[in-house]
Specification:
By secondary structure, the chain is α+β, with helices and mostly antiparallel strands. A hairpin with a 2-residue loop joins strand 4 and strand 5. Helix 1 packs parallel to helix 2.
């Protein structure tokens, strides 16, 4: 099955290249790499779980759109949280971006690679190619 870059190649906070694609379109599926809280300029968003979750969810939404998908096309998310006590607030914000039926999800506590990052999310989307939204890649 051919794969098509649907996002951008990854970059590190210092601007160096990270050997990943933020999103790949493969047939009827979009795969979004783990997204950390970054702003539009690629700088890490600091602060509490509220600020960081909002930043990640906005990136997830924008990255999905570049792959021809919307939030209702997300079928599975994997979430990493550094602090278990953040789970309730994370859930509140996360749920506000989806409608029923909610995507399947796994959530684990983990030490993340960049200092100060409290959340990372990756997603799988399903959108038949015949129904990809206009003005998107893939």
């Amino acid at each position: 099955m051919p794969r098509h870059l649907a996002g951008v190649t990854g970059s590190m906070p210092d601007g160096s290249q990270n050997p990943i694609s933020t999103a790949i379109r493969a047939g009827d599926f979009g795969f979004i790499s783990g997204l950390m809280p970054k702003d539009d300029d690629g700088q890490l968003v600091t602060g509490d779980i509220t600020h960081q979750t909002e930043a990640v969810m906005k990136r997830l939404q924008a990255t999905g759109e570049r792959a021809g998908c919307r939030m209702e096309d997300v079928v599975k998310c994997t979430v990493w949280l550094t602090h278990p006590e953040d789970f309730a607030e994370f859930n509140r914000i996360y749920a506000s971006y989806f409608s029923e039926p909610l995507p399947a999800r796994s959530a684990v506590r983990a030490d993340l690679l960049l200092p100060g990052v409290r959340v990372e999310i990756e997603a799988t989307c399903h959108k038949p190619r015949s129904r990809v939204y206009p003005n998107t890649h893939g």
